[in-house]
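Appendix B, record 7
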Amino acid sequence: MTLPPDPHLALVRPVAPHTRAGCEDCLRIGSAWVHLRLCLTCGHVGCCDSSPHRHARAHAGAQAHPIVESFEPGESWRWCFVDERMT
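Structure tokens (predicted):
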């Protein structure tokens, strides 16, 4: 079964990452992260759901920016937090 296109893809914009140094929120509070995600609406770099603070998901909820892309070298997938699926 093929899913219809995710309507949240309309929120994807050309973005530049706010930082390449790591999760911008973890850097601010001095915390560690596991993997990084790039918000495709504004360029926020946040940590994944396996990280202690789950900053990418928190950003998506607080800012209504649902689509992220892996910010890990060699990975090229996107995730929609609203629909909980790959896009």
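Remarks on this record: The chain has a mean pLDDT of 96. The chain has one domain: 25-86.
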